[in-house]
From TrEMBL:
Residues 402-412 have a biased composition (Basic residues). CDD domains: SET_SMYD. Residues 103-249 form the SET domain. SMART domains: SET. This is SET domain-containing protein. Residues 400-423 are annotated as: Disordered. It comes from Triangularia verruculosa. It holds the Pfam family SET. Keywords: Signal.
Length: 423
């Protein structure tokens, strides 16, 4: 039966989450008044019509972790590509031994930056500081026939239907965007862009939103398409009292480009330690970053030309600079260059050393997801092969030494015989 509830805002709130039946969305889906058809959503999907297809808000007000999640997308995307629909909402964190509980930080006022996050204990490199499930995921783009007021309506509904709307409404808002509504301003000030199955979404994470940006951050974020959670990882040891920061831009940009990105996309002037450092320090860092970029282009070129020694020299220098700029965790992929190059020149020990570095960076931070897993498996395969080749090489060398010793012995024996034979 499809009885129309008195208040469809509240109807179904708190329903236990059950495995999702995708036919419900694609057949009766958003238009049904039967709460059974909304599962795992706790509200009747709220939709606006558009030429091609409707755009809707899907909310589960209680999960994950009690604060709720609203997703703004089309029924087709919701029904066919959003991974979340195939996974239990409250999926456990994949590496609980790596996660600090309770949280190892507190939120305080930070001069020049509003609020921010300060470590309350020593935090070790490679450990997780926070796992934060998205509160809102909204499509980054809409067709031209969808009016701005309609998107504003969808976003406002997405916020208001959350289990604790006040938790996100209390986040900082910078008065961004001309004629922006509260929900738009909230998203413009606080959200991150994430990819889910090749589609771009703007994502709001209530707790992550308190972490400020730094151009030389001590932590980094990783988004899981499977759990729709963002994890904050410590990229170096962090002392109690230190601010915990992440980067809002692509890692490794020089000062002019990152200032532009922060002002255009995020709408603020960066006050981080690097941006407020002396002109000499900023110049040195810019030079380092420019060199890293140039090396990224020249190393593969040199290798292609067969100049392995030249390529390796540059790769070694590039890593010194990467470490100096505090970018190692963001650029672990680049350790693959020297690994390959050392293999080409037959230095298997060095090739293994760099392959282990790549593995340590991926594994150390426990980056989950399909890509991370595949990469780890590939690394394991390469490591096994290198170890085998090194063992075989050692064996050959041992045999060679033995043979040389034998030759030496027989040589001596011959000499002794000859010497002994002398009168
Ligand atoms: C996602 S919020 C971060 C938390 C925010 N500071 C708060 O009070 O809730 C982003 C906003 O924080 C401020 N912010 C973050 N990083 C900053 C930085 N490096 N320099 C200056 N302001 C920063 C900016 O006002 C920006 O719009």
């Amino acid at each position: 039966t499809t009885e129309i509830p008195d208040d469809d805002e509240l109807c179904g709130r708190g329903l236990p989450t059950t495995p999702f039946d995708r036919t419900a969305l694609t057949t009766i889906g958003p238009y049904s008044y039967d709460p059974a058809a909304w599962k795992p959503w706790t509200h009747r999907p709220y939709c606006i019509e558009a030429n091609e297809e409707p755009w809707c808000v899907y909310t589960n007000a209680a999960s994950p972790k009690g604060h709720g999640i609203s997703i703004v997308t089309t029924p087709e995307v919701a029904g066919s590509t959003l991974n979340i629909l195939e996974h239990p909402f409250d999926q456990k964190f994949f590496a609980p031994d790596k996660l600090y509980l309770p949280r190892p930080y507190k939120v305080v006022d930070i001069p020049g930056k509003g609020q921010g996050v300060i470590a309350t204990q020593k935090i070790e490199k490679g450990k997780a500081i926070l796992v934060d499930h998205a509160s809102i995921l909204a499509a980054a783009e809409y067709p031209s026939d969808v009016m701005r007021e309609e998107v504003q309506d969808l976003l406002a509904t997405a916020v208001n239907r959350l289990g604790e709307p006040e938790k996100v409404l209390g986040l900082s808002k910078k008065g961004r965007g001309e004629g922006a509504t509260d929900a738009e301003d909230l998203l413009l000030t606080n959200s991150f862009t994430v990819g889910i199955q090749g589609k771009e979404f703007i994502a709001l994470f209530a707790d992550l939103s308190r972490f400020n940006h730094d151009c030389k951050p001590n932590a980094f974020i990783y988004f899981s398409e499977t759990t729709l959670a963002m994890t904050v990882w410590a990229s170096r040891d962090i002392e109690p009292g230190e601010e915990i920061s992440i980067t809002y831009t692509t890692a490794g940009l020089p000062s002019k480009e990152r200032k532009q990105a922060l002002e255009n996309v995020w709408g603020f002037k960066c006050q981080c330690s690097l941006c407020t450092a002396s002109p000499e320090v900023i110049k040195k860092s810019d030079d380092n970053r420019a060199k890293i970029k140039a090396y990224q282009a020249s190393i593969p070129k040199l290798a292609e030309e067969g100049n392995f020694d030249g390529a390796l020299k540059q790769a070694e220098h590039m890593f010194e600079l990467v470490e100096e700029e505090g970018l190692a965790d963001q650029m672990s992929d680049m350790y693959e260059y020297p690994a390959r190059l050392y293999y080409q020149v037959g230095n298997l020990d060095k090739a293994l050393e760099y392959t282990l570095k790549v593995k340590r960076e991926i594994d150390g931070f426990g980056v989950p997801g399909k890509f991370g897993q595949e990469k780890l498996q590939a690394m394991d395969g390469i490591i096994r092969r290198l170890e085998k080749e090194i063992a075989m090489k050692k064996e050959r060398e041992e045999q060679f030494k033995k043979q040389a010793k034998m030759k030496g012995k027989s040589g001596r024996a011959m000499r002794q015989v000859l010497e002994g034979a002398r009168p």
